[in-house]
Amino acid sequence: MTTPTPRFHPISRRLFEVLKWNDEIAFQAANTAGMNATDFRAVQLLLKQGPHSPTDLAKRLHLTNAATTTVIDRLVARGHVTRATHPQDRRRTVVEATPTAYAQVMSMLAPVLAESEDIVAALSPEEQDTVLRYLKAIESSLKAHTQRLEQGAAGGQ
User: Whole-angstrom Cα distance, residue 142 to residue 26?
Assistant: First the structure.
């Protein structure tokens, strides 16, 4: 007995391919930087969103506090992040990406980011609006589904 293959719209299939290649780029960039996927995700998160407390970083990475401490220690030792005193509460610590980490990540991702901008620039304003509307709807759908999964996991389902 064969498992039925779901049929997806060609646009949905393209989106799945884009997501797959995004994951592959992240894996290859992490590998090039000498990091594992979790360490690279931590650096990316800090670069995109700024400093985080170790506890907040653990939540964002879906790790225990102990595992996150190990990640932070590894990244500090390699010069990718630093620990600093929280600006409002001197008893707390924040973790932030270093300029070296930014330069290393951007050196790997800048080409694909520039190509992406060129692709967008080649679209008419109307096409850009359509693509943006589609991506916002997909983002909203993915966020809602993530929340449903989190609620299911929290409810023991």
Answer: 19
